[in-house]
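Example 3.2
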Amino acid sequence: MVVVVDTVSATPLRPRHPEKVNRPDALSPPKPDWIRVRAPNTRGYADTRQIVRENGLVTVCEEAGCPNIGECWDKKHATFMIMGDTCTRACAFCNVKTGMPGALDALEPEHVAEATFKLGLAHIVITSVDRDDLADGGAAHFAQTIGAIRARCPTTTIEILTPDFLRKEGALEVVAAAKPDVFNHNLETVPSRYLNVRPGARYFHSIRLLQRVKEIDPAIFTKSGIMVGLGEERHEVLQVMDDLRSADVDFLTIGQYLQPTRKHHAVMRYVTPDEFLGYEKVAYAKGFLMVSASPLTRSSHHAGDDFARLRAARAALAG
């Protein structure tokens, strides 16, 4: 793949990932038969896109190139990405733009709430780019967005997928005080792969973040996820499960890493559906209330249905 940079026009286009432009292409093996998705061309998909555009919102579905966008948007399920479309981190796996973000939009929480209302969402997932440029990492903006949704759609349950708030003292407490129904923070990969895959993050900081949410409010469901196919070993995945359970995390997702461009980290291996089934069985045995493990599993895929099952599992455990 070739990255083209316009050096002729008066306003040259900035590459989406400037830090990756000079990297050699990383070649992945051909996709196997079990990696198949439907093209996004339904009426439901078009309606969802129109509502997103009308409210000037960004979705992780588009920015991260999610393979499930056709299925989810057809059902009017969209995951909003707040605080802009540009991330201050440069993870090797992620297709979200990198660079210096712009100022926060003070009206964005209300726009997200309005879109949630128009889509008729019973369960909404809100994520964000990393905002290392902000003193609180965007924690107050998360809290304001949760509050706006509560006011506009009081029966809608809210799931957030946050950055790690690394070196942002007090940020986590601000978000937890807003009482989302589900607090998700993804580990993304096993510790040994962090330097190559997620260099701006710290594995045990992320574990502690999830643990701290439970200490602040045990009623909040916690959730985390990893990708496989990045060069990890099976025993490392099982250790991640143990680390998450030590932090009392309720819900684990495991999905196949798919390379966005040849400038991103290569797919080292396509994990088979049977292996995913094996991971799911082990995770349940380790005590997770809810597990989603499959090639196309993503954090917000089927999030509403999964939340209903998660809540039922907790109720059954309570007796």
